[in-house]
């Protein structure tokens, strides 16, 4: 959490409306709020508990995952290159009084050069499909983590089913996300993500899929990685 002396009250006021939109579980960010507990439990189980772990959340956005990990006792740095969501995240953390949480507007590659091998856990959720060079981000994550530490990433598979579910269904039919949120060509197959990680010196440890029922509006984790999925890697 940033010290109160380092906060401009006018900035707090400016981003208050944005903050409540990002953290409104019924807004366009509803899917992130719904899947966050599932992701958090899976991450927690993989790494033997996030409590006490020095963690960096790459592409943290408004801080939904970063804040939930901090609430569990992790020492979290959330990083992003989008300034407005970071301010939203900072404001929400201050309003909630969350400890052990900080945010920076910095690229993963720049932080990796600055603090190599400094983190027990690196998370990168729903970010790799939004960058021009996902392999570069994976390399940065591998550089950031300590030997024996964990890198956990989530993204979207690239196939016909993923196109139907993640773009046609989510953006056009169900309107769960704004149109244009995703670009099919940037989706990443699990084998491609695993290759990027292997080339960066990481070992694949575990994976899972994330499924959704539009009738019950319920998400759950499964073995099916055909659309949304998470992979866990470890640095030897």
From TrEMBL:
CDD domains: AdoMet_MTases
Enzyme Commission number, as recorded: 2.1.1.222, 2.1.1.64
Pfam families: Methyltransf_23
Segment forming the signal sequence: none
Domain of life: Bacteria
Its biological purpose: O-methyltransferase that catalyzes the 2 O-methylation steps in the ubiquinone biosynthetic pathway.
Cross-referenced NCBIfam families: UbiG (TIGR01983)
Protein name: Ubiquinone biosynthesis O-methyltransferase
Organism for this UniProt entry: Aquariibacter albus
């Amino acid at each position: 959490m940033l010290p109160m002396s380092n906060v401009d009250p006018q900035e707090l006021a400016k981003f208050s409306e944005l903050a409540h939109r990002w953290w409104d579980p019924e807004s366009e960010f509803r899917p992130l709020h719904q899947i966050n507990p599932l992701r958090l439990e899976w991450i927690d189980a993989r790494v033997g508990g996030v409590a006490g772990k020095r963690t960096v959340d790459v592409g943290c956005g408004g801080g939904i995952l970063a804040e939930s990990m901090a609430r569990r006792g992790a020492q979290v740095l959330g990083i992003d290159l989008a300034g407005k969501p970071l301010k939203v995240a900072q404001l929400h953390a201050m309003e909630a009084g969350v400890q052990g949480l900080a945010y920076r507007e910095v690229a993963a590659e720049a932080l990796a050069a600055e603090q190599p091998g400094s983190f027990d856990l690196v998370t990168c959720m729903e970010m790799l499909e939004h960058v021009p060079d996902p392999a570069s981000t994976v390399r940065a994550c591998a550089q950031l983590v300590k030997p024996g530490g964990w890198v956990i990433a989530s993204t979207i598979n690239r196939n016909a089913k993923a196109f139907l579910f993640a773009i046609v269904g989510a953006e056009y039919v169900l309107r769960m996300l704004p149109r244009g949120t995703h670009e099919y060509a940037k989706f990443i197959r699990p084998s491609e993500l695993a290759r990027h990680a292997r080339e960066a010196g990481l070992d694949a440890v575990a994976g899972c899929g994330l499924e959704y029922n539009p009738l019950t509006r319920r998400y759950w984790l499964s073995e099916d990685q055909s659309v949304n999925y998470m992979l866990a890697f470890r640095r030897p």
